[in-house]
Design goal:
Layout (H helix, E strand, L loop, with lengths): L11 H14 L3 H17 L9 H12 L3 E5 L6 E5 H12 L5 E3 L5 H17 L5 H7 L8 E6 L8 E6 L6 H11 L13 H7 L9 E8 L2 H4 L2 H13 L4 H4 L4 H13 L2 E4 L2 E5 L10 H19 L6 E5 L2 E7 L3 H8 L8 E5 L4 E4 L2 E5 L5 E5 L18 H18 L3 H17 L28 E5 L4 H11 L3 E5 L4 H5 L12 E8 L6 E9 H10 L4 H9 L9 E5 L3 H13 L6 E2 L10 H6 L7
Parallel strand pairs: 15-16, 18-20
Antiparallel strand pairs: 1-2, 3-8, 4-5, 6-10, 6-11, 7-8, 9-10, 12-13, 13-14, 17-18, 17-19
Helix pairs in contact: 1-2, 1-21, 2-17, 7-12, 10-12, 10-13, 15-16
Length: 618
Amino acid sequence: MNFCVTPPTIPINEIIASTEQVCYQLEDKSAAESLRGEVVKILKSATKPKSNITTKERDALRDLGKRKDIVILPADKGRTTVVMNKTEYVAKMDKLTSDRDTYEPLKKDPTRQVKTRLVNILKKWKKENLISDKLYHQLYPTSENVPKLYGLPKIHKKDAPLRPIVSSTGSVLYATAKYIASVIGPLAGKTEHHIVNSVDFVQKIKDLEVPQGTKLVSYDVSALFTSIPVPKALTVIKNKLAGDTKLNERSELSVEQVTELLDLCLSSTYFIYNEQFFQQKQGAAMGSPVSPIVANLYMEFFEKQAFETARNPPSLWLRYVDDTMTKIHEYNIQEFTDHINSIDEHIKFTSEQEEEGRIPFLDTCVHVADDGSTKTTVYRKPTHTDQYLYFQSNHHLEHKRSVVRTLLHRAKTLITKEKDQKDEIEHVKSALRTNGYPDWIFRLPKKKEKTLDKDKGTQKRPTAGIPYIRGTLEVLARVFKKHGANIFHKPFNSIRQNLTKVKDKTDKMKKCGVIYHVQCEDCKNDYVGETARQLDTRLKEHLTRTSSAIYEHCKQTGHKIDPNKTKVLTSEEHLWKRKVKEAIEIKQRRPSLNRDEGLELPRVYDSLLMSRDPSPVM
């Protein structure tokens, strides 16, 4: 699903957008002009990229993208691509959303109501000088995308149930949730039971002994995010914030202000699925940046309660969010399981005991020998496919090297016995060869140590991401570096981007962050504009505000504008991409009636934009 198909043409508008993003940050404007000129020269002479798939494969992908009777999506775990009948996917999603203990149908879209609540809070704080202008504008919602629910199949479980995921990027509360996550994040991980990752886990159990009569048991919370009791979690976090002496170093907000915004994020967990709005009645939403941290902090509070009240607690308890590894006497397993399931009516655990001296945890497997000693190896679920980024994918070579580097690093850090390490390394090499990797790539160059440029001091260099096209982007990287800027290579045109279409489509009038085109019905003059808010909100302003060019045109001429005939030209992905796309639209038509300020592009791009197709597709 991560395989990137080489586009049939150079993605010129994406490259110009990134160039302009860098030029805006360069203090030396002559350097910016020079950079533009060199970029144009490179793009004019760039050759059409060689396809990395056959014509039949390209046709097949295009045909699959048109299919309405199936859905294609990645499995929840295991690097597997899943093809499901659409009727089966819809039935499973309907069953999931029919759980009235968790989800409540809503009569209308609550976005405006949620936005009003947030805006009123921010305006009140600003009026009372409780928040700086900078933070006010950072948290003020400009985008109003509705969170969307979709499901990923858990094929490692019976009947492949769907894991609910809420896509909330661009929603009213997304920026607020990200900010609150940065404030409360450092509060987590302060307990002896917390583990950072698999490497940390292996380090903490390197001398583990499991004598006769003792068992390793892993516990997992069922549907943790939707099970978190929000009022309790808010109290727990508020108390932690009150005792945090470094809070004022991370945020200008008080404990009460942070808690108020967090409460808003956790109480506004709504989404749309199949054109129906739902409110999540309890817990934190999957997909919100703040949810994992809230879950972690509440579990720290929970485990403290569990240990303080347990009659025979386990001698080992290590936890990664909702996954816990314990060492406990076999006589006490059931008693302790019943105990932790009685503490909170919402938090319920399932458990798994070691079998034949083995038990998986995260992506490790702990082996217990007859003498009680332990070792760890890499664990793969039975549904794991050994499918990694295919070598012929349109990715930069360094991305492919990072796949090799990561898998070999995992073999060396998660496996404790030398023989097992050698076996794992051979397995990795064999799997990667199947994915098209040549033998020479396993001879990895040493990573260069980052050195500080003494002449530049600590000044940050302008950086932009550009879609990777082999041959062209390497030349561009050298030019950007010469002008004091960095670029990184973005994957572009992946199979997942083109084939995975399970989220609700947004109604045209409800789209946020768009370039739009309004045409007069009588004289055919037109207007090109941009808005970060919902399109219907912006169009209402055009027709009612005297400062609007459209309003003035209609008033002076008596002509009419039908807002429902407004065309969405493209989405606003970032400032410079908007500039490029609107400039292309303007250059391809006669001068417009009016347009928003600040969207003109330097004329150096004119010949390039008019001579190339700026919108390659699979």
